[in-house]
Write a structure and sequence with these properties.
38% helix, alpha+beta, TATA-Binding Protein, single chain
Length: 91
């Protein structure tokens, strides 16, 4: 198993950042079938082969993902895409 950790700084209020992360998670569900649920300021993410969280903090979003064996070879691509989408949603 491989893990991905991304910290992305933002300049938004907590409410605006949460709304942006919610839009991001809706796209993940539509395109990739990733289910998500909020637990306070933590968005828990899960689908077959991937489990993780997006922690929303003042000025920062921290993403942690654990990839299953089948997705481990794609770690670099997945990490790059997470960064790209965070930039798109929060940048």
């Amino acid at each position: 198993m491989a893990s991905i950790q991304v910290s992305y700084p933002h300049q938004r209020s907590m409410a605006d950042a949460r709304a942006a992360v919610q839009i991001f998670s809706a796209k993940l569900e539509t395109k990739l079938g990733v289910k998500s649920v909020w637990q306070g300021d933590v968005l828990m993410l899960e689908r077959q082969g991937v489990k993780g969280s997006m922690v929303l903090k003042e000025g920062l979003v921290e993403v942690e993902l654990t990839l299953g064996m089948m997705l481990t070879p794609m770690k670099g691509q997945i990490e790059a895409e997470v960064n790209k989408q965070l930039e798109r949603c929060l940048g």
